[in-house]
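Hypothesis: this fold can be encoded by more than one sequence.
Test: take the structure tokens below, design a sequence, compare later.
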């Protein structure tokens, strides 16, 4: 039996499942979808998992967008979009797949009306 803390993170694995279905998402969208699907977790834990996942190769930064507007912290916001990296191993969670299908179906239905 190995000693110490086990490798891996359930939050990071769940984020991997989300990104495997959605492709690219920015950090806050990852958190919003995560909160609807999985047990309660803080936004900070999701962002922490994204940052550490980038360091370990599970995720990669797909693009960074700057949006101008009137925010409480200043004139612009930065959106970092994440995608799966080379070392990510999604297992194909059925719950995430069904959520993605329902989400895209409702989005297409809204667009058609």
């Amino acid at each position: 039996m190995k000693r110490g803390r086990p490798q891996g993170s359930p939050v990071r694995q769940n984020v991997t499942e989300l990104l495997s279905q959605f492709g690219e998402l920015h950090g806050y969208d990852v958190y919003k979808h995560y909160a609807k699907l999985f047990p309660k977790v803080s936004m900070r834990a999701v962002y922490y998992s994204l940052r550490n996942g980038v360091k370990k190769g599970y995720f990669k930064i797909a693009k960074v967008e700057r949006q101008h507007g009137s925010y409480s912290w200043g004139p612009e916001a930065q959106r970092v979009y994440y995608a799966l990296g080379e070392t990510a191993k999604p297992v194909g969670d059925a719950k995430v797949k069904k959520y993605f299908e329902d989400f895209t179906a409702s989005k297409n239905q809204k667009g058609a009306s």
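Strands lie at 25-26, 59-71, 74-84. The mean pLDDT is 90.
Hypothesis status: open.
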